[in-house]
Amino acid sequence: MSGRPTTPEQVIEARDLHVTLDGSRILRGVDLSVTAGEVVALLGANGSGKSTLVRTLVGILPIASGSVTLYGTPLGRTVPWQRVGYVPQRVSATTGVPSTALEVVSSGLLYGRRIRMPRGAWASAMDALDRVGLADRADRAVSELSGGQQQRVLIARALVRDPDLLVLDEPVAGVDQQSQESFAVTLTGLVELGTTILVVLHELGTFAPLISRTVVLQHGRKVHDGGALPPSAAHATPGHDHVHPHESPEEGSPLIHNAGFGS
Ligand SMILES: Nc1ncnc2c1ncn2[C@@H]1O[C@H](COP(=O)(O)OP(=O)(O)O)[C@@H](O)[C@H]1O
Ligand SMILES: [Mg+2]
């Protein structure tokens, strides 16, 4: 097509990334380069640093050394956050304000310095809820929804911006098989539209046909970056990832003003 750049746009560029949390070195020199339209699965055992990496990439965690650019803009400057949707690894939703599903989803339209809902916000939020099959739960308090439904609300909150880059941290952990399959269909639609995706997974499962590349972390280092199928070492032990009780993941994120979850 005319007018298209001949080289794909650089979406994520992390160079020699080191991240330290509470005095422990968690990421040790990670390089990651993702171009437009790629669907990259990030794999690795529990505690290998997957969540730390994606949270650093979306500007939630500080960088000890190295660099990250999103769409060519270094983190900490004017990254075009409206192009980025992020689905955090789910944390308990039993505390926090009693937001409805619709409110949580519409909060995805707030980013950067935008503190007021744009025109048409509710309609967009309803549309996003519909895409995850929860339109009939719009007015329900999120805390009343099942774990899988809460996860789908978080996905809708990321989708409501129509992001060009979607970063998902174990989006289907704890989600029933049927919802996983319908989410894979939703993702397929986004991939066909050209959305760039970085997704942390325990196993490729339902998503295998979508994945163009796998990256594997081990002890905070990248140990594989290549073809669609991971080496056998990549198969993580099943189970849920550890979430530190003292951290409140979304607070202060440039991406999310009012997460309504776990904060
Ligand atoms: N806030 C924190 N303070 C100290 N250590 C942390 C913190 N968050 C995570 N960690 C540690 O960092 C390592 C990587 O965690 P994480 O990125 O959550 O791994 P993964 O998502 O691959 O399971 C783990 O050893 C974890 O205990
Ligand atoms: Mg994790």
UniProtKB/TrEMBL annotation:
Residues 12-244 form the ABC transporter domain. Transmembrane segments: none annotated. Keywords: ATP-binding, Nucleotide-binding, Transport. Signal peptide: none annotated. GO terms for molecular function: ATP binding; ATP hydrolysis activity. InterPro entries: AAA+_ATPase, ABC_transporter-like_ATP-bd, ABC_transporter-like_CS, Metal_Ion_Import_ABC, P-loop_NTPase. Coiled coil: none annotated. PROSITE patterns: ABC_TRANSPORTER_1, ABC_TRANSPORTER_2. Residues 238-249 have a biased composition (Basic and acidic residues). Gene3D superfamilies: P-loop containing nucleotide triphosphate hydrolases (3.40.50.300). This is Zinc transport system ATP-binding protein.
